[in-house]
Structures are given as C-alpha cells and as structure tokens.
Description:
With 276 residues, the chain is mainly α. It folds into two domains: 1-56; 62-269, no CATH class. The protein contains eight helices and no strands. Helix 7 runs antiparallel to helix 8 (215-269). It is rod-shaped and about 85 Å long.
Amino acid sequence: MISRISALFAAIAFAATLAVSPMAQAQAPADAASAVAADAAPAADAAAAPAAAKKEENPYGLMHTLSHGDMVSKGVLGLLLIMSMGSWYILFTKLWDTQKLSSEAKEVRATFFKKASLAEGVKGLNETGAFRYIAQSAIEASEHHEGALTENIDHNTWVTMNIDRAVSEVQARVQGGLGFLATVGSTSPFIGLFGTVWGILQALTAIGVAGQASIDKVAGPVGEALIMTAIGLAVAVPAVLGYNWLVNRNKAVVAQVRAFAGDLHGVLMGNRQVKR
Length: 276
C-alpha cells in the first residue's frame, strides 16, 4: 500500500515538472527581450536629444529678433547691412585702384623718361591711366597757350597750373569713397545704439503690459536689443580701420603721381619739343 502511494506522489511530481518547464522556457525569451528593450531605451533617448536640441529655436538670438521685430528694428538692421556692404565694396575697389596705380607708377618711372621723345613716351602709357591723362594735359598746355586772357599768364605758370589741376583730379578720383567710410565709422555705432534703445523700450513696454518682471522676462528682450549695438560696432570697426589704411596708401600713391608731374614739368620747361 505504501509503495503505491509513493508511486502516485512520484507521478504527480513528474507531471508538475513537465507543466512548469514550458512556462519557464517561454518566460526566458520574454525576460531577455525586456532586457534588450530596456538597454535600447537610453540609446534611443540619447539619439533623440540632439535632434530635439537642433529643432529648438533660440528665443534670444538674431533670428528671433528678425522674425519678431517691428519695422523700426528691421529698418535699423537693414540700414546697417547696407552700410557694411558699401564699406567692404569701397575697401576692395580702392585697394585695387591704388595697387594698380602704384604698379603703373613703378613702370612709368622706369621707362617713360628713357624714351626718345615725349610723344613716344605718352604712347607707351596706359590709355585710361592717370599718368597718360597728366602727360597729355601738360603737353597740351605747353603747346596751346593762346587767348586774350591766358596771354597774361606766362608759359611756366600756365603749364604748372594745368599739371596741378590734372594731379588734383587724379587725387580726387583716388580718394573717392573715403567720405562714405568716415561716415559709416562715425555713425554706425549710434545707429546700433538707437536700435538698442528702441528694443529695450519695446521690451519694457511688453513686460509692463504683461505684469511679469521676472529675470527670464527681462533678460531675453534686453539681450535681444543689445544685439543692435554689437552689429553697429561690427560695421564701424572695419570702416574706421579701412579708412585709415586707405588714407596712408593714397598719400604714398599721390606722392608718386606728383613726382612724375614735377619731372614732366621740368622736361617741358627745358624747351624739349614734342616730336610726333
């Protein structure tokens, strides 16, 4: 009897083992999948964080000022942009002009006065260059000194006057645009400051209407307005530096032009006829 009961309990235990084993096998893959999903979740969050940061707009930057600013602030930014573009255009063009004139002066100094005649020397000059213009003006004044009024001026003074007039015109062309640089350098900081004052006024008005004076409500609009001052300084500094640089370059180039004009005047006053 006891052996039968023991055999019955053994059979029940074996059946229970067979029933629990498939459930354990099914639970193991589920637990593994949960662990993999748990490990992948932080990685997915970490990958999504930069994308969210990229999409988030800076509420206190320049783009926000452009998109939410009124007509006055946009007009100030547009004016500063025009002034900056004009300054850089003048800087590059005048740099090219002075470099070209300096190279031409070196060539003229080396070749012009070695020619057999003034006419031959003039033909060797650039047709649109400043030195050709000065030489032609001086030769024309030396050869044509007639008229009821000009006869009262002696030949030497007449030629000198025409050469000085030609040199002054060349100098005026070289110095063209420097007034714009000086204007930009002196006024753009104040234009940017005006934009800052206007932006702060609008920000304080909005804060007063909203009735909230917390640091986040004040710092953002005020920082936005200060961008105008920074832009004004960024426009002014290159204009001032470029103005001083071009003034020094122009002095050196004009000195070379005046030296050529003085030598040409000496040749004309030496009774050297222009041979065609």
